[in-house]
């Protein structure tokens, strides 16, 4: 019958072309700023690992104002924090362009901080609070200003998280808000370390300035990564078959444990300051 119709009308039957077939939906690509921040974070982590190898080969003290510890720990810490904040902010109710701008500035600031610390480690001089020469003063003040920028940016993101309930899986809002709140403790302790060190340096107590930050380091380190640990826990729980009530209780218990650890580190800082 098809051949008869073709012969009568002189037309050939329509065969669907490749373009007529329905296309499979493609997964949305991550925003450019997010991809840039993830890539930058991985580079910083790699830098920390490379300097861990340098330390293994070159040796030297692990503690103190001049050691390979600083490019290792700062590279790893800044890299992980940059990736964590980039991921966590995807749950914030924030205008995409503003988020992209804040993340881009944050990534650039992380590079400046790790770069300055790494430069001074290779020069064999302290990175923070070192004002022995004009160049060292410029580096130290750049790192101090960069720290101020970090405080401002992350405070804005924390305010956004509390201003509008974050999206995401069950208990993610609690995890994100708690993570940012505890992160503010890390920022405050970091600012206190720099401020006290600068005062001691300006008053002629350079050596004391280098050792003045020891008491606050545990508090700073413990509270720094809550913004990653708690949201990751909420995300993992969303992959389970447990009820929403159980997930919320587990995240709430984790927040309580983290707060207890921060309080303990704070007490220790007060007693040894």
How would a crystallographer describe the biggest sheet?
none
Given the C-alpha coordinates, what overall shape results? globular
On the 0 to 100 scale, the average pLDDT is: 86
**How far from one another are the termini?**
96 Å
Structural class: mainly alpha
The helix/strand order is HHHHHHHHHH
Count of helical regions: 10
- Helix content, binned percent: over 70%
Strand count: 0
Give the strand content.
Answer: under 5%
- Poorly predicted ranges: 1-28
- Calculate Rg over CA atoms: 26 Å
Can you walk through the features of this model?
This protein is mainly α and 273 residues long. Helices cover 73% and strands 0% of the residues. The protein is built from 10 helices and no strands. The N and C termini lie far apart (96 Å). Mean pLDDT is 86; it is low at 1-28.
Question: Which helices and strands occur, and which strands form pairs?
Answer:
Elements: H1 2-9, H2 32-58, H3 69-88, H4 96-123, H5 134-163, H6 172-202, H7 206-211, H8 217-224, H9 226-237, H10 244-272
């Amino acid at each position: 019958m098809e051949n008869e119709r073709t012969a009568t009308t002189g037309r050939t039957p329509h065969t669907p072309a490749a373009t007529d077939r329905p296309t499979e939906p493609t997964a949305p690509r991550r925003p450019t700023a997010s991809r840039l921040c993830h890539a930058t974070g991985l580079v910083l982590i790699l830098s920390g690992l490379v300097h861990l190898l340098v330390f293994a080969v070159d040796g030297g003290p692990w503690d103190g104002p001049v050691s390979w510890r600083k490019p290792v720990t700062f590279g790893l810490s800044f890299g992980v924090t940059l990736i964590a904040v980039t991921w966590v902010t995807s749950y914030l109710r924030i205008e995409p362009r503003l988020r992209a701008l804040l993340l881009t500035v944050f990534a650039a600031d992380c590079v400046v901080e790790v770069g300055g610390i790494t430069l001074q480690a290779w020069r064999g001089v302290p990175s923070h609070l070192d004002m022995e020469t004009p160049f060292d003063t410029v580096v130290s003040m750049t790192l101090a200003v960069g720290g101020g920028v970090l405080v401002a940016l992350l405070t804005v993101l924390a305010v956004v998280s509390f201003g509008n309930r974050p999206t995401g899986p069950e208990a993610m809002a609690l995890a994100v808000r708690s993570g940012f709140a505890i992160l503010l403790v890390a920022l405050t302790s970091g600012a206190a370390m720099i401020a006290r060190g600068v005062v001691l340096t300006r008053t002629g107590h350079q050596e004391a300035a280098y050792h003045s930050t020891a008491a606050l380091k545990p508090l700073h380190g413990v509270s720094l990564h809550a913004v990653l640990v708690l949201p990751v826990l909420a995300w993992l729980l969303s992959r389970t078959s447990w009820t929403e009530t159980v997930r919320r209780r587990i995240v709430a218990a984790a927040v309580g444990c983290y707060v207890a650890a921060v309080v303990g580190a704070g007490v220790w800082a007060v007693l040894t300051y």
